[in-house]
Amino acid sequence: MIELLIIFIKTMVVFGLVLAHVAYTTYAERKIIGRAQARMGPMEVGPHGLLQPIADFIKIFFKEDIVPANSEKIIFQIAPVIVLIFTMINLAVIPFERNFILADLNVGLLFILASASISVYGIILAGWASNSKYSFLGGLRSASQVLSYEIALGLSLAGVVLAAGSLNLRDIVIAQHNFALGMYAIPQIIGFVVFIIAAFAETNRAPFDLPEAETELVAGYLTEYSAFRYALFFLAEYVAMYIMASLCALCFLGGWTIPRFLTDILPFLEKVPGIIWFAIKVYAFIFLYIWVRATFPRYRFDQLLNIGWKILIPAGIVNLLIVAFVKKFV
Asked: How far apart are CA 88 and CA 97, in angstroms?
């Protein structure tokens, strides 16, 4: 009974913190992009606009939920829930610190990849059920985009799995800590770069936000959605950003640990809680998401697929072969 209570409390803490982070990531994104474009960003609601996410939530919560007359109503209504559920459950297998994880699965990395694959079905169903050509095209784009970039993402992570000898995310972090450099991002720089680019495409973020390209498809698969269901898609997108940022920290940057050569030089760093190092790495990747959105223009769809199939997948295979060679002979 006590164990169940502890798991329940941990779950509420994780989901509560993630939802708070998502809310204020939207605020941070507006502020950072505003600074990049020489403007202020949100300023009206609260000091420096700090209450803007709360105002947005209230506005969306009370907006009318419109369902198109000719849509497949049941599928239309459950599609955003499918996307959100299969994104949120990934939080259960992420070790935020050595002893803080909801479900310590031996195949945690594989679980995240599988859940990410299923969540895209919600986007496809949303596009089809809307009975709109713009939404349908957005759903099809999402399917082809995820198909091409998930292969590259898997290949980039395969090198990490091969080096660590485990699919367990906690074991991968420990393996990096025992490694001389303390992280896999340096020796597996090819896989690291492939992962970063694929992570942008997997989460439909600029410059790979083709499924919701407003200049071409009005808003893509979101065109017919309104109110809270519309917000669920964005909630899932920002949670997915944190999932990918956490994967980057865990698989390439040493997770909650820092390299031993740093602690040898500065011993006091060992006293810093691991969750702090993990958070810094995650925040850095989230900042990269926002920075890239403010900097790079959107790719054409043929360019998107060419990058995935002709550059990233071959690069991922090369990285895997190098890791296999080093593991076997060096």
From this structure: 18
